[in-house]
Design goal:
Radius of gyration of chain A: 13 Å
Largest sheet of chain B: 6 strands, mixed
Helix content of chain B: under 10%
Oligomer: heterodimer
Shape of chain A: globular
Order of helices and strands of chain B: EEEEEEEEEEEE
Number of helices of chain A: 0
Distance between the termini of chain B: 41 Å
Helix content of chain A: under 10%
Largest interface: A-B, 27 and 24 residues
Amino acid sequence: EAQVTQNPRYLITVTGKKLTVTCSQNMNHEYMSWYRQDPGLGLRQIYYSMNVEVTDKGDVPEGYKVSRKEKRNFPLILESPSPNQTSLYFCASSPGGAKNIQYFGAGTRLSVL
Amino acid sequence: GNSVTQMEGPVTLSEEAFLTINCTYTATGYPSLFWYVQYPGEGLQLLLKATKADDKGSNKGFEATYRKETTSFHLEKGSVQVSDSAVYFCALTPIQGAQKLVFGQGTRLTINP
């Protein structure tokens, strides 16, 4: 089954404790993105990747890092989480091309205390 | 800049009612337009899309027409069901082929039996 898998689905942590949210897709898509969803703001893009070893900032990259060492994986790293990073995070992948149809994971709900 | 504005929610309707969720956009160039749906506890799924002016996207009884003259992409359904209860997001891709989505804030729809 074609899917985007995120782990964990729920995470509670404390300020300053490094964490990684994993994302994996099995559709051989070139493009992957991370978004955060906040009430009243919709989804905002954090980082995206156009291919292996090619990443770029989205609209709200501060406090986040990403890596793309393999085509299927695109982890999101919070080196020193802060309470304002409490949010619902979504990973997405896309085959590229003019249609830009993106496939989303089920989400990771993060709380930073 | 690029932005999407949706009607404020939440929206509550009775089963078989007519649904309209308004969406207007601001973009340079010729964006592609999308409606995504998020069911409780799940990630976003593409509902429908339109890539050029006057295109009509349709799926599962939902329709939306790309109106360049009014910069709008309103979502409509003639007869809603309880199973349509979800959060609906209007989104655009600023440039054809760009792998980025700019989202509206989302509209929560509840359908009562």
